[in-house]
Every structure is written in C-alpha cells, then in structure tokens.
Design a protein that fits this description.
Low-confidence stretches: none
Number of strands: 7
Shape: globular
Largest sheet: 5 strands, mixed
Strand content: 5-15%
Distance between the termini: 28 Å
Helix content: 55-70%
Order of helices and strands: HHHHHEHEHEEEHEEHHHHHHHHHHHH
Length: 395
C-alpha cells in the first residue's frame, strides 16, 4: 500500500477506534467507503484489529443495509480475529496467574508492566490487544524463572543475552521478563540511570505478598519514557497514543502534575509528553463526536506527529529508525563519519547488553565487531544499503 493511502486509512483507523472507545456508532458513509482489506492491514500493523472489529460491528448493527455493500469476507475475518484475541486473553490470563503464583510461593519480587496494567482502562474486555506480557522481577531469581517456564512448556527465546529474557509457548503466549527497565545502550542510557534504583519508587500491593506497582504518576512517566524510547528509535504506533488517552481519561484530574513535569524534565521528554497528551485528546475525544472537527483541530506539528505514528505501526519502521539516528548526529561530513564509526563500533553499553561475554573479556570485542559487520551484511543487507543511501543523501 502506498504511503499516502496508508495514512488515509490510518486516519479512518483513529476515527473508528475513537468511536469504539466512546460507544459511538461510526458514520455510515465512512464505514461504507473504507476498503476493509486495507483497513485490516493497517489495523494489524498497529495491533488494533479487535477495537476496529468492535466499531464495525456497532455500525452494522445500527445500519444493517451496510452488509449489502461491505466486503463480507474481510468483515468475517475481523470478527474471527476478535474472537481469537479474546480467547487468547482468557488463556493468557490463566498463564499469567500460574507464573505469579509461582513467584509468590518462592518469594520473588515482581511488577506487571505497561499493557498488563493499561488493558484494564479500556471499556471492554479484550479491546486492547496484548502481544505479550511484560513483568519486572528480581534478577536474583532469573534461573528459577527459566526453570519454571521450561517446566511449563515454554521455549527460551532469549536468555542471558541482553534484556529482557523472553519465553514463548505454542506460538501464542509470549512473556518478556525484565530484570531492568532500560538497558545501557546509547539510546536508553539516560532512562537507565533514572530507573537504576527504581524499587524505592514502587508501592507494595495490598492483596499479595511480593507484588508491587508504580504510583499513578510514576506509571504514567514510565509509559511515556517507554513510548519515547520507541518513538526515537523507529517510531511507535497509534495504540501508544490511545493508551495515553484511556489512562488520562480516568486519571488526569487526580495526578500530581507538578511532580510529573519535574520528573519528565529530568528525563528530557517534557515536550514529547505535552505533544502526545494534546494529540491523544484531539484524536480520541473530539474525533468520536465529530470527525471533521477533530481533524481540523490539529496543528501542523500535531498532524505531522499523527502521520508519523500511523506510518510507524506498533513496532516502528526501519526507515524511521535510520532517519532519526542520522538526524541525531547532524548533516556535515564530520558528523556523518562520526555516525558511521558509532554504528560500526558501538559503545561498551551495547556490548554489555548484547554480548556480555565480550564486556567481561574485552579482548574479544574487535573480533565480535568484525563478526557483526559480516553478519549484518548477510542478514540485513537491504537495511544496510538503505542506511548508506540515506546517509549519503542527507543534507
């Protein structure tokens, strides 16, 4: 799909999800005119098929005549994906409960992160799709968690090679176990310092023995820092904007904004938070009531931001990542040389996270550096060519 068309469908995605969040029936003409196959493609890029399915179902219920002009095959596909996602969530919750019970029984500190918390702010069960479960835990029990996961049928996707540890089962369940909220690579170093001793910020759960949670303010700050990490390294999608909206819709008036602003200032993301907050409310509050007024209320910068989020998808794009990294270093020849050197020879923090054996035995670093270049030239040749061309063209 061409980028311009992708963005057009993306704006419809925003409108339909806003309607679903507010239980507003979407405009009949909008539903009639959208290409459902294209809409499904864009929704999948943002992990938002379920909320769009809910919006489409409400439109069909209100305007039965739509069925005569809609793509029934794709509409049924939306319904099937929704049913499968809700079933997956029920099963996922059972898997999560088993893991948490194991951690409780063994005295392991833990804290559910991000989506596991945010999903409860959505108005309907399963409306927010979950790709994985993220849990922060005590690194001293890393081996115990690994043994438990293997014993319960999970395969080890990543262990002792950067963070987080990752476990998958039946191609359906994915747990990411975080022993650090951020790593020490270049694009996360400041966040890593801020969250180095995070436990003093946490609050003990009342209904269990070893579970913790952030205060509402610190949870919001962590969500923003996580969103910015993705935004600055390839982009993040519309769902991250929607997460901000549903959280603030319930919590905004109760939050200590003086504290939030002070902490965001430490992290250097005050401007990012303000932009995302304003954009979230314009997209998911005004738009549901009047699509045209919601779109018209966007400033040029907000429109550019929304288009960037739509084009990124939930995991960002290689193109966005390359452009942002190149921009960080500057446009002069000297800046470009510095950029190339850093890409070829990353910081020690990179090796500490991704090649811990090198970090401990640093004499191996030159050999790993050469191996990285050879491996990337084979596995990611298209990405490297794109990066080189962009570096040359950038002025």
């Amino acid at each position: 799909m061409e980028k311009v068309r992708f963005l057009e469908v993306g704006h419809t995605l925003v409108y339909l999800s806003a309607c679903a969040l507010h239980s507003v029936v979407p405009d009949e003409e909008t539903v009639k005119s959208v290409d459902l196959r294209e809409l499904l493609h864009v929704a999948a890029r943002h992990s938002m098929q379920v909320i769009i399915a809910m919006a489409l179902e409400s439109a069909v219920a209100a305007y039965p005549r739509l069925l005569s002009v809609m793509d029934k095959v794709t509409l049924d596909e939306f319904k099937l994906i929704k049913a499968q996602a809700i079933r997956k969530k029920v099963l996922f919750d059972a898997e999560l409960q088993k893991l948490l019970e194991f951690m409780e029984q063994n005295g392991i500190f833990y804290m559910p992160l991000k989506g596991l918390v945010l999903q409860s702010f959505y108005p309907l069960f399963g409306m927010r799709q979950m790709c994985d479960n993220d849990i922060f835990f005590d690194i001293n029990y890393r081996k115990d968690i690994r043994s438990f996961m293997i014993a319960n049928g999970y395969e080890v996707i990543k262990y002792n090679s950067g963070y987080p540890d990752a476990y998958r089962k039946n191609g359906m369940f994915l747990f990411e176990m975080h022993f650090s909220l951020y790593n020490e690579t270049d694009n996360e170093i400041e966040f890593n310092r801020y969250y180095k001793d995070v436990k003093h910020k946490l609050v003990k759960d009342e209904n269990n023995g070893f579970g913790y949670h952030f205060t509402d303010e610190d949870f919001y700050i962590h969500c923003l820092s996580h969103s910015y990490k993705h935004f600055s390294h390839g982009g993040n999608g519309v769902r991250s904007l929607m997460d901000i909206f549903v959280f603030l819709l319930e919590k905004h008036s109760k939050l200590d904004w003086c504290y939030i602003d002070a902490e965001l200032l430490k992290l250097g993301i005050v401007g990012f938070e303000r932009m995302m907050r304003a954009l979230a409310f314009k997209c998911f509050e005004r738009t549901a009531l009047d699509r045209k007024s919601g779109t018209a209320s966007l400033s040029e910068k907000e429109r550019q931001m929304l288009d960037f989020l739509i084009s990124s998808g939930v995991y960002g794009t290689v193109q966005n990542r390359i452009e942002q990294m190149v921009d960080e270093y500057g446009q002069s020849r000297v800046d470009k040389v510095k950029y190339a050197i850093r890409r070829l020879f990353p910081s020690m923090g990179y090796y500490k996270v991704n090649y811990p054996f090198c970090y401990k035995t640093r004499v191996l670093i030159p050999f790993v550096a050469v191996w990285r270049i050879i491996k990337r030239s084979i596995v990611n040749s298209k990405s490297i060519k794109r990066e080189i061309l962009l570096l040359i063209k950038k002025k």
